Amino acid sequence: MKRTLIWIGALVMGAVLGLLGIGWLNNAMDFIATVYTRLFQLLAVPTIVLAVITTFATFGSKGSGRIFGRTLIYTLLTTFAAAAVGALLYVVIAPGNLPVEAISSSTQPIPEQDSPTRSLSDISPQTSFYDHVLNVIPNNIVKPFLEGNVLSLLLLAFAIGIGLSKLPESENKAVVVKGLLGLQDLLFLLIRGLIWTLPLGIVAFSAQLSAQVSAGVVADSIGKYVLVVLGGNVIQFFVILPLFLLARGLNPIYVLGRMMPAVLMALFTKSSAATLPVTMQSAENRLGIRKDIARFVLPICTTINMNGCAAFILVTSLFVMQNDGTTLTLGTILLWLIISVVSAIGNAGVPMGCFFLTLSLMSGIGAPVAVLGIILPIYTIIDMVETAENVWSDSCVCAMTDHDLQ
Q1: Cα torsion 281, 272, 191, 208: sign
Q2: What is the pLDDT of residue 41?
Q3: pLDDT digits 0-9 by tens, 42-74
Q4: What is the DSSP string of 187-200?
Q5: Which whole-number Å values give the CA distances from 88 to 44, 105, 182, 314, 342, in the listed order?
Q6: Is the pTM of this model over 0.85?
Q7: Are the beta carbons of 374 and 209 closer than 8 angstroms?
Q8: pLDDT tens, 243-288?
Q9: DSSP per position, 10-62
């Protein structure tokens, strides 16, 4: 709660500074915003790659019996539904483009992506689906890292993670997995440090936004974008997930009432992992879930069940690509729906994990990441709602799994 108030205060302060119209101050804010954007790009790609590898590498040690099978099926179904709702709302509400001046002035200090990087993942009307798929498949294990091609890196991460999970238990496997987990802990430490200083970045991004020309157009475009994101979360929370529970013969009002302490804590902590002890306690003591199921399903769901994240990745990616001039055809939307679901499953369990993940994906295709800088000042509200939805979805998956295995 304290951090949220600080971020809101930073948002207001930045808006006031931007409205002053002081040249040197605007330049300083642009510089700070560019620094934070580059730091985000630095940490985003290794974070998501390590998260995917370690997530799948640990599945083998946890087992893959009936409980895990049910958990995975319900996770995929609910996550896909959340992304589909976001895609449908995006088509219906149709957020407009930001002013060209707003994007160009934000991206000017950032060096442009090299053309080979863009061609590898560029989804445009001139690039066929066949060529796009071929370009995503790497032919050199080092090249995707050097070019920051996140789609190729995701493919490698899934292959390595699943391969590690299939290896027989041995000292060599344990060393590799521990080394990867150690690197992941180090990255999380760096991210926590960056987030600790983030109020300064929010001031800069907010000042940058309020100083842009055509503020009315920006507000209209961003307003519709936020409506799509939050509207999708609300529909998923109050309609889609209750329908899943009803289909399995469970009372959604009763389940939500029993799990309300966890959902409320998630809303304010913005961390599914931090909320996990409360989620497990509520599931076992209030909802009556068997301990063996609650203690197996909920930690897995905290890692891979990211309904709100999938919707955010899809909607934000479409919004950024649209502002880059990409025509959003049905094929493009369906392709990114799949990418968003797969990416959300491997999302890092850290604050702003969805934001980092989306930024890494957009960096990989050379899209204007400065649009994400414009979104950042309002992300704290989106993050609160998304995390509450994620924990509610975890609770639903756990309840449905317990019901099926009774």
Answers
A1: negative
A2: 67
A3: 776 777 678 778 767 765 544 446 787 888 899
A4: HHHHHHHHHHTHHH
A5: 28, 31, 40, 11, 19
A6: no
A7: yes
A8: 999 999 999 999 999 999 889 878 877 778 778 778 888 998 899 9
A9: HHHHHHHHHHT--HHHHHHHHHHHHHHHHHHHHHHHHHHHHHHHHHHHTHHHH
